[in-house]
Specification:
204 residues
Length: 204
């Protein structure tokens, strides 16, 4: 596929993601996507086999972009401290600042949207969703495992629990921010989790 073809594919994915976050996957038709993208039906099917293929490519891209975003923040945090606990606290601060810098409330989470309509998807798409969330657990857990080896927690806890808690705060913060049309909700929830980590590991 050439540069022009890749650009068209990205345009279709961007348009579809925006629509899905606004009105759900079932409420988004191929005809609407075609109309918004300014392409023919044949052009759409040149890039995607159908709506199921579109869903698969959409969720795969979403996780890839999110993973790259998280990794960029971790890379920055790692460059600023050698202590794993401080690295995580810096990561949370950078994350909250990135969310505060958004022009509007977070557009929404494709994982949450797809989960609400899981009956619309085949097993392959559902497995991609589950694997993506498990990858988040692995990414965050590895950080907490390193911290727990060098910093005793004030209460009994496991790295996996903390990882899932962080994911829940991110996802829940996005939902509440959108419902209340308040960008600061997500930012404040991220900072509250940061405070929790400070208290958990008795950071002065």
């Amino acid at each position: 596929m050439g540069i022009k073809g890749s650009a068209t594919q990205e345009k279709i994915l961007n348009i579809t993601q925006h629509m899905v976050l606004q009105k759900g996957f079932s409420g988004t038709s191929i005809d609407e996507i075609i109309d918004q993208a300014g392409i023919t039906k044949g052009g759409f099917f040149y890039h995607f086999k159908g709506k199921s293929d579109l869903a698969m490519r959409l969720i795969t891209r979403y996780f890839k972009q999110d993973d790259a975003f998280f990794q960029s923040l971790f890379d920055r945090a790692d460059s600023l401290s050698e202590d794993p606990l401080q690295q995580l606290l810096i990561f949370m601060k950078l994350f909250s600042e990135a969310m505060a810098d958004l022009e509007d409330t977070h557009p929404g989470c494709l994982v949450a949207s797809f989960t609400y309509e899981s009956h619309q998807f085949d097993d392959h798409v559902r497995q991609l969703m589950a694997q993506g969330v498990l990858n988040w657990r692995t990414m965050f857990s590895s950080r907490f495992e390193t911290i727990l080896k060098t910093h005793p927690a004030k209460i009994d806890t496991r790295a996996e629990q903390l990882a899932d808690m962080l994911t829940s705060i991110i996802e829940g913060g996005i939902v509440v921010s959108r419902v209340l049309a308040s960008q600061k909700v997500l930012v404040e929830q991220l900072l509250q989790f940061r405070n929790y980590i400070r208290l958990l590991f008795d950071v002065k």
